[in-house]
Amino acid sequence: MRFMYTVDAIPVLDQDFSLHLMINRLIINTMPLASRQQCIISNEIQPGFFVEADEKKLLAVTGNLLNAVIAHSTNCSIAVSAKQVGHVILLHIKVNNRLYSRPFAEKLAGIQEMALKAGASVSVTSFRNNITTLAIGFMNHNITN
Fold first, then answer.
1. Which whole-number Å values give the CA distances from 142 to 14, 61, 80, in the listed order?
2. What is the spatial distance between Cα 93 and Cα 132, in angstroms, rounded to a whole number?
3. What span, in angstroms and rounded, lies between the C-alpha atoms of 129 and 131?
4. How far apart are CA 142 and CA 145, in angstroms?
5. How many CB atoms lie within 10 A of CB 80?
6. Is the pLDDT of residue 13 over 90?
7. pLDDT in tens, 55-73
8. d(Cα 145, Cα 109) in Å, to the nearest integer?
9. Nearest alpha carbon to residue 56 among 1, 105, 114, 135
10. How far apart are CA 37 and CA 34, in angstroms?
11. What average pLDDT does range 4-24 have in this prediction?
12. Could you tell me the residue ranges of all domains in the chain?
């Protein structure tokens, strides 16, 4: 079963939350699909990495992107990491497969549209050495990180 997350009906609610814990919840939700696809997912985000953003909207975008990556990959390793650059958080999903297919591109286009509605962006940042890196960029309203 795949989870479909939406952002349209979710009110904006910026508050501090642990990005590490959010990703852990997503990994747990995607375990059945990841198991079928023989994918291993690791959360490389530090437990103390807190952000101030709309968690539900970020969860929707990240969940759909992670599901798409898993669904279009087999026998892979996926690493989720994050870094802060100024007021921007970059959440990276790195997979040891080249995700270059029409079905994936179509799915990605829908996720990019969802991200825009949520005030974020999704892009493919690298296709090097048979590794695909995707990034979700969003504003962190808490500048104390």
1. 10, 20, 21
2. 8
3. 5
4. 7
5. 25
6. no
7. 899 999 999 999 999 999 9
8. 31
9. 114
10. 5
11. 68
12. 14-139
Interacting residues of 82 by C-beta distance below 8 A, sequence separation 6+: 19, 45, 49, 89, 90, 91, 92
**Which position has the token pair 């990703």?**
23
Whether domain 14-139 has CATH 3.30.565.10: the reply is: yes
Token code pair at residue 81:
């990491």
pTM: 0.86
pLDDT band at 15; cut points 50, 70, 90: low
**Burial of 4 (C-beta count, 10 Å sphere; 0-12/13-18/19+):** exposed
d(CA 37, CA 70): 7
pLDDT of residue 1: 37
Which amino acid, residue 80? Answer: V
Q: What is the average per-residue pLDDT within 40-61? A: 94
Q: E strands within 3-131? A: 14-18, 39-43, 50-54, 76-85, 88-95, 120-126
